[in-house]
Amino acid sequence: MSRRRVVVTGLGLVSPVGNNTADSWRSVRDGISGITLIDTFDTEGFASRIGGLIKDFDVSPYLDAKHARNSDQFMHYGVASSKQAFEDAGRRFRKAKRIGSGSLWDRVSADSGRSKKTTSVI
Length: 122
Hints:
Elements (H helix, E strand, L loop, with lengths): L20 H9 L5 E3 L12 E3 L12 H5 L3 H16 L13 E7 L6 E7 L1
Antiparallel strand pairs: 1-2, 3-4
């Protein structure tokens, strides 16, 4: 097995306990849970009625209205956390070289319970 090195230069986070790294860390440190009753859709017929929901998220600092309207909500979270990570690393979004810049998104599919990783070049 080949061992590849990975360098983490910046962090970005949109989660049920905060919409950025600082708020998420503060919530975890203070023992605040992001698990609540699901109120975004009808949970009748599901085994569970609780889950981790992202609350009070504003996409406008990360995407213009046209792109936000034409993309799914999970993409909003990925773009926001990627932009936060770039800014945390001291980088700015601009016309960047496609090689050497990337983002790893990790989400758990509700239907399979398996983690699906997607690597995107920004």
